[in-house]
Amino acid sequence: MTKTGDGMTTMTNSGANTGGPPAAPRRRSKAVRRLVIALLVLVALLVAADFGAAAVFEHEVSKRAQQQFDLRDHPSVKVGGFSFLLQAASGEYDLVTIDAKGVPVKDTLRDVDVHADLRGVQAPLSDLVGGSLTQVPIREVEGQVRIKASDVNRAIQENSNEVVSAITNLTIDPVSEKTVNTAPADGEETEEDGAEVADQEGTTAGVKLCGTVAIAGQETELCVFSIVSLADGVVTITPKRLELRNGGSDVKLPTAIQGKVLELFARKLDPGSLPFKVTPTAVTVERGVLSVKGKAENLVLGR
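Predicted structure:
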């Protein structure tokens, strides 16, 4: 407040707002931005450290798995669960998966896939990296060996029949055992029911093996409906019936000839041992694959 020469009093405001934002909020905004950037950098460093430590662990486990499984190459190893570093601090890992592709087994099976899920893996990272850890206790192991259609095709080609041994495009599809043992009515095709049986596991399963053969100079689709069974770790294919189609029409063979054709598809396949010598307990059929599975508890990697 000031007084003019004529006695008039006027009001003044030395702190009048010039239109700009308050200084304090502006400083707080910059501080928040710096804090957010610092947190993002910290998170990025932690994530990088987590991935780096996981890569070291996976490499060490891969070397041990290669030795134990007697593999030609290092298998792929992945650590599951949230935050590798938190699991490493506790010394126990929720899930470790091991995959080996294209493993040769004897002469016929040359492209077998081996898969193992390891749960409750006890391996302190410091001991593993330092080389002092020679044995890794595992609470539970689920092992699987997958036989591909190309290997089954190779096994069928080993017979002396020129027609069947010429098959090069064999396919594998799951069907129910009921479908295997039940022929459709004349003029009808077998209904597909593979989706209904894909998740079922046991010592037997239904399978449809199809390929193209030349009959009387005509390209003909031949499908053999079979039961696959598991005994003593060996997969046995037992053919039950066949269907032939040429240009959309059914082709009928005399019963005696059908029997001889079916015999050509009877095969025994030995996929070798499951990982960690797990006892095989089930055979399943997926599109393009026959799988042998097993489960075991309280095993040791490196023993």
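Summary: The mean pLDDT is 79.
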